[in-house]
Amino acid sequence: MSDVKDENRARFGVPADSMVFARGVRKSYGPLEVLKGVDLDVPVGSVACIIGPSGSGKSTFLRCINHLEKLSAGILLVDSQFVGYDLRDDKLYEVKDDLLCQRRAETGMLFQSFNLFSHMTVMENLIEAPMQVRRIPPDQAKAEAEILLRRVGLLDKVDRYPRELSGGQQQRVAIARAMAMKPKVLLFDEPTSALDPELVGEVLQVMRDLAESGMTMVVVTHEIGFAREIGDQLVFMDGGVIIERGAPREMIANPVSPRTREFLSRVL
Ligand code: ADP
Ligand code: MG
């Protein structure tokens, strides 16, 4: 396995510490080109925050990283393994179906809408995929789930159903559930956008703790304060391309592109 990774690194010039490596990623839906050549480097243990107006392709890009969408063109590797690529003479690479589930589990994804299994308790939500996909025994799955629930401050809710929890608590369970798959990278798609304002802080705190523990994260968010404090890089997307990227503090204080400046003035 590491031979394949070494080969890929050498072939595409992937840095040794790369978790996400994107070059010229394109995605079209019929005639509509949504991603028009996206480049991104997310080193292991770092946090990349992506901002940009609605419809700029942020969710589509995360879905590509998570194997939920097939690329139209470009090179995309997670942990130096292909998600997809297209080079002049090569065919578009696709991960074989039998590997897809496992590879998708390596990239945990969190959505605005939490997406917990509503008919399962918190504990059942956390142990389902580890037992089915990682094939670990129930006792071990439960023990691991308890550690994660303690970490997100919800150990007392193990036997509750999602509907009995607040939105903030549900999102914290969703984060714990994603972590239960031991992902290499966590992808967040506007994780706090559906929450009442007073519940945003508790979710951002869990994300801050994860970042500080060394978790690699790609976070699409409108929370500029979070991006400034926690982000190692800030990326501004508009119209399917990255307009500007940089250190969050500098970029927020001194955006170079007028489009970045205009966007920031609306969300700050
Ligand atoms: P963002 O997350 O930045 O708001 P999206 O990635 O959701 O942007 O969408 C970018 C564009 O792609 C939008 O114009 C959207 O309508 C279009 N789009 C997204 N998903 C699909 C799809 N499955 N089929 C067709 N068009 C889509
Ligand atoms: Mg979106």
UniProtKB/TrEMBL annotation:
Topology term for the membrane: Peripheral membrane protein
Domain ABC transporter: 20-264
InterPro entries in the record: AAA+_ATPase (IPR003593), ABC_ATPase_HisP-typ (IPR030679), ABC_transporter-like_ATP-bd (IPR003439), ABC_transporter-like_CS (IPR017871), MetN_ABC_transporter-like (IPR050086), P-loop_NTPase (IPR027417)
Keywords: ATP-binding, Cell membrane, Membrane, Nucleotide-binding, Transport
GO CC term, one of those recorded: plasma membrane
Taxonomic superkingdom: Bacteria
GO MF, one example: ABC-type amino acid transporter activity
Localization, UniProt: Cell membrane
Entry annotated with the keyword Amino-acid biosynthesis: no
Similarity field: Belongs to the ABC transporter superfamily.
PANTHER family xref list: AMINO ACID IMPORT ATP-BINDING PROTEIN, L-CYSTINE IMPORT ATP-BINDING PROTEIN TCYN
Protein's recorded name: Amino acid ABC transporter ATP-binding protein (PAAT family)
